[in-house]
Design goal:
Helix 5 packs antiparallel against helix 6. This protein has 3 domains: about 130 residues, Probable tRNA modification gtpase trme, domain 1 (Gyrase A, domain 2); about 130 residues, tRNA modification GTPase MnmE domain 2 (Four Helix Bundle (Hemerythrin (Met), subunit A)), CATH 1.20.120.430; about 160 residues, P-loop containing nucleotide triphosphate hydrolases (Rossmann fold). The protein contains 16 helices and 13 strands. A hairpin with a 4-residue loop joins strand 4 and strand 5. The protein is an alpha/beta fold. About 45% of the residues lie in helices and about 20% in strands.
């Protein structure tokens, strides 16, 4: 299905600001005609002669020439232009890309000329939306485009690329085909009951549903937590009493001197944040004000902000000082993070022969404890490894597997899994098999929503409005 009756759209496809190259992208039925009005090829005499008939430019070939404003009789820029004829383009429509010098004034001037020739401004994500509408990609692949653009690490990019090239699509289609085959088998049993042993058939169908469908759906749904952390990053709050070395440890972990460090307690009164990648996982490290009792109004503001950061953190790094015994303030801090994933760093280990904290105490049984020295760097790499490991303890997690990172996909997968379970219950109870078939068809519909085969227009608008203009 091609959308040749849609408007021709245009937008700057490169980031705003100055750069070596800027790209104006045009898509739609008038794209080629607009290019003919604006572009004069430099390498052919026939194109330099305004009276000579213009020959058609070949598809997917870069041509050197000028963008000319005929009304003002002036050259806007020397450019490279490529035409991609439908359906062999990103949108499966005629697409033109003008590669000009990357100045905002140049890009704006060319785009305004394109608009004068009959194009309109593209909405956010409209190029990718047309690629989806025209059947070039499914909806999960369209969403992967946005994830690739916004990827914060190589690992997040790898998972988004897997989805773009059809990783999730293939898994969903495989389960859909399995469900369709099972439905066909069940319908045959209903139509020809005398040829089938119902008890034996029901047992095999229930087993097949679990092994080929339900287990895969459950595994995909469980991958969502890991997928979210890889896509959006992990908020890691560094907390502890004043002057235990939180800011020094923060600087060591991010390999930069970002937080102010002094020997005086209470130096950090506001949060300091930095993004740093460990093993391909993006972490938002947040250095916080020391937690303690105080009547100082400014310190109290900082402490309240620390508590707010704690409530939103995925992981907490509790910092204790090796030279100090465990205190009532430390106990109070632990009570605030008892429901959080936590790692404990015993800092300033270079100052003592033996630390006070004993991990054999029942209080510490589920907390990883790492000896560190922000001064010497001792234990920092071990701490980084423990931080990454704490976020991905799932034994089923593999960097080469398909991971779900989109809440829309997760809900659809969970709905499909629930419908498969309902069907299995009906089959195991030897109830009306037609009810089980209805459940399995509902599971198929849920999975097809991931691919965009059954989706409301309003949902599409929400998805593509999250894209940048020009993509």
């Amino acid at each position: 299905m091609f959308t040749s009756d849609l408007d021709t759209i245009a937008a700057v496809a490169t980031p705003m600001g100055s750069g070596g190259i800027g790209i104006v992208r045009i898509s739609g039925p008038k794209a080629v005609d607009i290019s003919k009005q604006l572009f004069q090829a430099a390498h052919r005499k026939s194109d330099r002669d305004p009276k000579a008939p213009k020959r058609a430019l070949k598809s997917h070939v870069m041509y050197l020439g000028n963008i000319v404003d005929e009304e003002q009789k002036r050259v806007i820029d020397q450019v490279l232009m490529v035409i991609m004829y439908a359906p062999n383009s990103y949108t499966r429509e005629n697409v033109v890309e003008i590669h000009c010098h990357g100045g905002p004034v140049i890009l704006r001037a060319i785009l305004q000329l394109v608009f004068k020739c009959g194009a309109r401004s593209a909405a956010p994500g409209e190029f990718t939306k047309r690629a989806y509408i025209n059947g070039r990609i499914d909806l999960s692949q369209a969403e992967a485009v946005a994830d690739m653009i916004n990827a914060k690490t190589d690992l997040a990019l790898n998972f988004a690329t897997d989805q773009l090239i059809g990783g999730l699509q293939k898994k969903a289609n495989r389960i859909i085909e399995e469900l369709k085959q099972i439905i066909a088998c069940m319908e045959a049993g209903i139509n020809f009951p005398e040829d089938i042993d119902e008890n034996e058939c029901n047992g095999k169908i229930a087993e097949q549903l679990k092994s080929t469908c339900l287990d895969s759906l459950v595994s995909l749904a469980k991958s969502y937590d890991s997928g979210c952390l890889l896509r959006d990053g992990v908020n890691l709050a560094i907390v502890g009493r004043p002057n235990v070395g939180k800011s020094s440890l923060f600087n060591k972990l991010i390999d930069a001197e970002k937080a102010i460090v002094t020997p005086y307690p209470g130096t950090t009164r506001d949060t300091v944040e930095a993004v740093y990648s460990i093993n391909g996982i993006p972490f938002q490290f947040i250095d916080t004000a020391g937690l303690h009792d105080t009547n100082h109004p400014i310190e109290r503001i900082g402490i309240n902000r620390t508590r707010d950061v704690l409530s939103k953190a995925h992981l907490v790094l509790l910092v204790l000082e090796a030279t100090q015994p465990f205190s009532a303030e430390d106990t109070e801090i632990l009570s605030r993070i008892e429901n959080k994933k936590c790692i404990c760093a015993i800092n300033k280990i270079d100052l003592v022969k033996e630390r006070y904290v004993n991990e054999r105490n029942e209080f510490w049984k589920d907390i990883t404890i790492i000896d560190t020295s922000a001064k010497t760097g001792y234990g920092i790499e071990k701490l980084k490894k423990s931080i990454a490991d704490e976020c991905f303890r799932d034994p089923n997690y593999r960097t080469d597997s398909t991971i779900v990172s989109n809440i829309r996909h997760k809900f659809a997968i969970e709905e499909a899994a629930d419908k498969v379970r309902d069907a299995m219950d009906v089959i195991s109870g030897y109830s009306n098999e037609e009810l089980a078939i209805i459940d399995l068809n509902d599971a198929i519909k849920a999975l097809e929503r991931i691919l965009g085969k059954r989706i409301d227009t309003d949902v599409l608008d929400v998805i593509f409005n999250k894209f940048c203009i020009g993509k």
